[in-house]
Structures are given as structure tokens and as C-alpha cells.
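ok so I'm stuck.
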Amino acid sequence: MLCAEVSLYPQKTTRASEIINESIQVLNAQRLEYEVGSLSTHVHGPEDRVWAGLRGMFEKASQSGEVSMVVTLSNAAH
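replied:
not stuck anymore, here's the structure
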């Protein structure tokens, strides 16, 4: 199992919230558990699906332009 805390920061846009929300929806395709907070999203699940979810989030956000993504990972039990 892998846990991640992820924050997306779309750059040069007035649609930041929309881009972030669309990116978070990618996690559903990976069948991951996640909790959306005001500053970050907590994701946990099997390692391969968490990695795929993070990559998918970044790729989805990148479709709208420049984006920064900050991720903290842990393999410790939660």
C-alpha cells in the first residue's frame, strides 16, 4: 500500500479549480480511495494504482497548460 498527499497548482489560468477537480476525477478510474481537502488530496491504495493515479492527474492537468504538482509519499501504514 502507498499513501500520497498531492497538490496541483495550474499556472497562468483563471480555471484553476476546474482543472484541479477534473484531474482528481482521474483517481476514480484507478479505483483509488481519496479525500479532497482545502489544500491537498490524500490518496491511498495499491502502489501501482497510486502511481498511475498521480501520473494521470498530472497528465490531465497538463492538457490545460502549465502545472506544478507537489507530492508527498509514504509506505507507512495509515
